[in-house]
Amino acid sequence: MTQPASVSDWRLKAQKRLPRMMFDYIDGGAYAETTLRRNVEAIERIALRQRVLTDVSKISLETELFGEKLAMPMLLAPVGMAGLYARRGEVQAARAAQQAGLPFCLSTVSICSIEEVRSAVPDPIWFQLYMIKDRGYMEKLLARAKAAGSRVLVFTVDLPVPGARYRDVRSGLSGTLSLTDQARRAFNAACHPHWLWDVMLQGGPPSFGNLVEAMPGAKGTNDFSRWIGKNFDPSVNWDDFAWVRERWDGPIIIKGILDAEDARRAASVGADGIVVSNHGGRQLDGVPAGIEALPPIVAAVGDELTVLVDGGVRSGLDVLKGLALGAKGVLIGRAWAYALGGGGEAGVAAMLATMRRELEVAMMLTGCTDVRQAGEHLLVRDL
Question: What global pTM score does this model have?
Fold first, then answer.
């Protein structure tokens, strides 16, 4: 393949470079993957209004979220285990994001620790929090994020238990492996020597940097999957948001909202923002796409907190559609994971540049000169 021209191209490049278990982890969803497909299809069904003879010689993509200026209304969502897609992958992605003028949000279940990523980039990063049963460890983790300079906390609430991700079982990423399965997995890794050299040998033995002390003795993705099942806290409720709020004095965004009633509750307890999200179709299959759930949520709470959206975003056009439906910003996850897996930091930088050009073109052809003015007037609503 020549230089990838789109996120779809980066997906193919990642599929070629990564062992099956790692590619399927990026690419897969829960159960029959109905919601995974719906995320993309729902965005594709939205029609933009093409306008002509409008002066679009000067356009602005800049916006502001939670006191930070963004080069465009997009940010890199937290993606687990990104350090297994490329050597010290979270570091590479964070560098590319900050060079593009965008926030990077580090996952709790990253390979690189928050301290490692922060030391490698000029500006503080956002941090994503999963709640585990050990509240003492959670308190220490929040303190580490604050010490690293993080201002914005993304509190993910749609994973009290992991979804049933059948691709991960079939590939051997999770579940109990027989000796035959272990041999097949090792052979698959050996068939991808560039990945093996780059990630496993040059990158050093992989560990989950933010959780090393919480999971002593755990080795590899199978042990980690079992650890999640035992330690992620299914008892988490709205009272736990108050617990987090007491320990975090910056903006808190609740990620994983799909229902207007939950959105109103988030506003009432003091959240600063929400992400309308179904976890990329990786949790409860059969729920609405994020873009489908967005309009009623914006109608319910749009003036009370900052509403963001994710799920199925594969181009700058998709970003504009999310803004037109009321989101103030759009998160991308798989898009940057594909680019990281296919081309490392340079791949993420190239993909972000492509999405910026796509957003610019979409704005110009819809007659939108400022992303902050994007709204329903950009859409054809009766198709």
Answer: 0.94
